[in-house]
Design brief:
With 82 residues, the protein is of the alpha+beta class. It has one domain (18-76). Helix content is 22%, strand content 15%. The chain has three helices and two strands; from the N terminus they run ααββα. It has a two-stranded antiparallel sheet with strand order 1-2. A hairpin with a 2-residue loop joins β1 and β2. The longest helix is centred in the last third of the chain and has 7 residues, at 70-76. Residues 1-23 are annotated as: Disordered. Residues 13-23 have a biased composition (Basic and acidic residues). This is CoA transferase. Pfam families: CoA_transf_3.
């Protein structure tokens, strides 16, 4: 596959490991990755993969911590606890 891509002049290449994407020159050049401050410290991750002029995406902040909404969800379902 890589040879076929090279024949047409593309610079595409397979990622050997998902973590390799963070070092991809093209993805970094187009600004795909964002750094978000979390309680555990800054985390770099893929941001919004499309850029639309009238509805630009944005990263609002970090994901909720594990279990952050458990009590509220259980209460809404009527599953009681303490």
């Amino acid at each position: 596959m890589a040879e076929a891509v090279a024949r047409v002049g593309d610079t595409g290449r397979p990622a050997e490991h998902p973590g390799d994407l963070f070092d991809d020159p093209h993805l970094n050049a187009v600004g795909l990755f964002e750094t978000v401050d979390t309680p555990a410290g800054p985390v770099r991750f893929p941001g919004v993969p499309t850029w639309l002029s009238r509805t630009p995406g944005r990263v609002a902040g970090p994901a909720p911590e594990l279990g952050a909404h458990t009590a509220a969800v259980l209460a809404e379902l009527g599953i009681g606890g303490a």
